[in-house]
Amino acid sequence: LFLNIWAPDQAKDLPVLLYIHGGAFTGGCGHEKHFDGPVWPEKGVIAVTINYRLGPLGFACLPELEREAGHTGNYGLYDQLAAIRWIRENIRAFGGDPENITVMGQSAGAMSVQQLCLSPLTKGLIAKAVMSSGGGVGEQLGKTGRAEEMYGYWQEVMKTAGCETLESLRSLSPEELFRAWDVVNQDHKGMGLTCTPCIDGRLIPRSGAEAIQSGKFLDIPYMAGSTSDDIVPPVVFRMAKGWCRLQADQGRHPSYTWFFDRQLPGDDEGAWHSSDLWYWFGTLDNCWRPFTEKDRDLSREMTDYLTNFAKTGDPNGAGLPQWLPQQKGQNRVMRLGEKPTHMGGVNIAKLNQTMLTSHAAGE
């Protein structure tokens, strides 16, 4: 576990924006081109990215581990929690405000952010949260089950690796463990994601639905959204919008929904999963695509919205089109396309057609 930190010279009491990468809980890292050198410090926000344990190292669930520690699974999420706690304890040395930490994630990172916001262990640690293309109301993209439901799968991994005890399992190299996991994973392709957060009785004591129903999650400002050509576009967008609507319906802090549909130059793939990251981080120059001045203007506006939100919980600021929060009985979505504009709603039928077309093309 390590952190990458970008801070301006002579920073003092600046808000902090921690980004958790995606990758289906099995891939990705904290120093990809999308977020290598974000412009946030230029706008008065300290940027932090992290690595966390992935695959079997991050999400294995075994009864032997449960007996040993009292819980099992979610090791990758515990890494994320450790990073947040480290920031709280040390960010003043970099000029940051430990009381003003915003946590942002994309895809599996967004799912992580949601789980952290549902957890009793993060109370008082997170001031604001941002979820891009993952998380929200509904668990269609990764149902949170109980740890013991995955025992059989991980015991099969252990057996394939030739291990009968935790001691022998821990003696494996990471490469050996991942090879055994890959063999078993190939035999269970229909299971969907096999490395995911689980109800462990500690970090995640209950299902997301139960936490939401009981109101036991962080009452903080949120931003959430997705892209027009996302993974299962209608589902991902409904989840993001539903999360922000939930905050409004329960009279909680303001929450803001976005829909990114900027066609990236260079091909005809549309606004695909993670394509918005170049814009949120202001790292267009790290990409090979022939971005235009309109792309750079959009990125400037998106980074302004994001850093304003990290500072105050409100994305709005001077010179920006007004972004209205979700309100009970109303549908407020900011469209991030050629330029930010408000839209009353998103054409779900069109998103369904996008999904069907992508599936027919084998994407």
Automatic annotation (TrEMBL):
Residues annotated as domain Carboxylesterase type B: 1-234, 250-342
Keyword Nuclease: no
UniProt keyword annotations, A-Z: Hydrolase
InterPro entries registered for this protein in UniProt: AB_hydrolase_fold, CarbesteraseB, Carboxylesterase_B_AS, Type-B_Carboxylest/Lipase
Pfam families assigned: COesterase (PF00135)
UniProt EC number: 3.1.1.-
Enzyme class, first EC level, given as a word: hydrolase
Keyword Protease found: no
GO molecular function, one term: hydrolase activity
UniProt-listed PANTHER family: CARBOXYLESTERASE
Similarity comment text for this entry: Belongs to the type-B carboxylesterase/lipase family.
Name the record gives this protein: Carboxylic ester hydrolase
